[in-house]
Specification:
homodimer; alpha+beta; Dna Ligase, domain 1; D-amino Acid Aminotransferase, Chain A, domain 1; 3 domains; nine-stranded antiparallel sheet; five-stranded parallel sheet; 10 helices; globular; ATP-binding (chains A, B); Rudment_hybrid_motif (chains A, B); EC 6.3.4.18 (chains A, B); ATP_grasp_subdomain_1 (chains A, B)
Chain lengths: 380, 380
């Protein structure tokens, strides 16, 4: 890049939510000029950037016009207009992750085919065009149906238990996937810069909210066997290299009861499974993403201590102007870091913030986190 | 306060420099709405707040109009119009630190008298109105002359070695102070909230740039004897309680060759001697200032590891658009955190950023910091 990453460089971010917000908190340290495009005029980043533009992320013209004249574009959400990004790339704007990778990851079908072609372990699957195809799939019941496009945070995913439930299946092109009887959901975040340096964060274990299918609880570093950690790490690095991605890539995996690792999904950006790195690791995932896209040496990812991350989700049944309960109580406990996302309105299970709980005593970190989970509530 | 500190509360900060900028980085975590007043249209905070107003900090009308309608005001620089703050306080705006404390600290003469009245150890001094008074002072030569008002970062301070130098002394009301033959300059940052909770950060040792009289190098935690640390800690707490301050107070002290501690100066705000707390301590000074002014439980100040802070000063002889040398090199070293302040123009010794170097091995932290100091330069 002709310009230094600090100073005059103009960086566009597609999406102005919490990931953009935490990326800005880090970008401030390097004088990066940040431009944000988001459809929500109340987006969390709106008051924290050089330029905030309210507009659609999926509209070609909007994305193209936003990106013209910028030096570099990155994303905090995959659901963006890739054709516009491709055109901008061709015109010399640096787009990281590359538009071809966003296109691949937007489509869960292409993602699975990529895994298959590159010998990346993943659950057996089949692509279907309409729900009629479900009657003839070779995948045994019960199975999971996932929309190929536009699903996120558990939306666009259905468990089909029996033939009678096919009636209620999604109509659109989708992916049928073998139901994995997993022991744990794990994730590795990997970063790659344009020089080809690759670096992973230590593996984390996640617990999901069964109702909302969102990460609710995450522990770092993992205490899983060394072989599991090494294997997951190798898989994440291989994917980053196979893709030749520039930027951050979150690799979500299942650890099966038999100790096998299966890759579930990719996210080519900072990810919920890396929020604990802000306080828990030497380099945070946000700092690492900036290092990767600016082709800088990648930072050390070593864990500084035990860190537990819990998502602060909007309470069920509450919708409206957000009100927070228990913030003062949790701030009284050592090693509790509150991150609110600046969202004006809450609704059931909306991600309103996260809390990171650090402690050199792992059991105490977990205990404090469970307590915070009881105390801290977002209502309306 | 009627409003929660997160969400609807409107916080004004007088000054939009690096201290305001780092305060904003932390305030983002709590959804605090930040309003900034600064005379420089290119101030580091200009693009990072809900409202940026360009105007004089010393003009009554400007400060009063800026503050009207806000819920709370704090400062990142002492040189502000205190009459306006006092009027705002009387009209119900919460001002922390309180206007009476800013007024006291603005005047180094009043500060010294406060020390004397409260049995706080400090170098012998005398107040004078004009430089003519220097001929009859009881303080032995050589001594230090300090302007009572408007001095900062080493400006407004003169060493007078002999009677012949009195000619070149400051004309304005000032303070003559015994020259302290000190071993080390040390500092303790103390926080106090409105409930009366008081908490100190571990003592730090500082090295000054002799040419610019600015902190250049700082090590935390200190390895000074326990008695020195305890004594300094007690002094800082006593001052915070004597003042009944709400907010952060940096207490700069001399450790004399005889092991005596003498208080040099106070700063009622986040301070250069606390920048290492961002990466080095559980709670950063910026988080602690917010906790104090919002009357929250004060955070744990324990050091997480060894941290060395070095100021990144504009190189002598360079003036103009800032250019940074060596940023990529220093980012390759583990535990090096770069904080640039978003200043467009550099000039000799201008504070352009700081670097924090952490390491569990203290000697290695110091070694890395010395190397960073060699490598990283701001030129034009």
């Amino acid at each position: 890049m002709a310009k230094d990453f600090y100073g005059e460089l103009q960086l566009g971010i597609l999406g102005g939510g919490q990931l953009g917000r935490m990326l800005i908190q880090e970008a401030i340290n390097y004088n990066v000029n940040v431009h944000i495009l988001d459809p929500d005029k109340n987006a969390p980043c709106r008051k924290l950037c050089n330029r905030f533009e309210c507009g659609s992320l999926s509209d070609f013209e909007t994305v193209y016009n936003f990106g013209k004249g910028l030096d570099m574009i990155t994303i905090e959400i995959e659901k963006v207009n890739v054709d516009a990004l491709e055109k901008l790339e061709n015109e010399g704007v640096v787009v990281y992750p590359q538009s071809r990778i966003i296109r691949l990851i937007q489509d869960k079908g292409l993602q699975k085919q990529f895994f298959k072609q590159n010998d990346i372990p993943t659950a057996a699957f089949q692509l279907i065009s309409t729900k009629e195809n479900l009657y003839e799939t070779a995948i045994p019941l019960p199975y999971i149906q996932k929309l190929r496009k536009d699903g996120y945070d558990g939306k666009g995913v259905k468990k089909i238990n029996s033939t009678t439930e096919i009636e209620q299946a999604f109509e659109s092109p989708s992916l049928v996937e073998e139901l994995v009887d997993f022991e744990k959901e794990i994730a590795v975040i990997v970063a790659r810069n344009d020089k080809g340096d690759v670096s992973t964060f230590p593996l984390v274990e996640m617990e999901f909210n069964p109702e909302a299918n969102l990460v609710e609880f995450l522990i770092s570093p993992s205490t899983l066997p060394f072989e599991v950690q090494t294997r997951a790490d190798e898989i994440a690095k291989k994917i980053a290299e196979d893709l030749q991605i520039v930027g951050l890539l979150a690799v979500e995996m299942f650890l099966t009861k038999e100790g096998e690792i299966l890759v579930n999904e990719l996210a080519p950006r900072p990810h919920n499974s890396g929020h604990h790195t802000i306080e828990g690791n030497i380099t945070s995932q946000f700092a690492q993403h900036l290092r990767a896209i600016f082709n800088l040496p990648l930072g050390a990812t070593t864990a500084r201590t035990n860190a537990v991350m819990i998502n602060l989700l909007g309470e069920p049944r509450y919708e409206g102007l957000a009100k927070y309960e228990g913030v003062e109580d949790v701030l009284a406990v050592e090693g509790v870091f509150v991150h609110l996302y600046g969202k004006k309105y809450t609704k059931p299970f909306r991600k309103m913030g996260h809390i990171c709980i650090v402690n050199d005593d792992r059991e105490l970190a977990i205990k404090n986190a469970r307590w915070v989970q009881e105390i801290l509530k977002v209502k309306a």
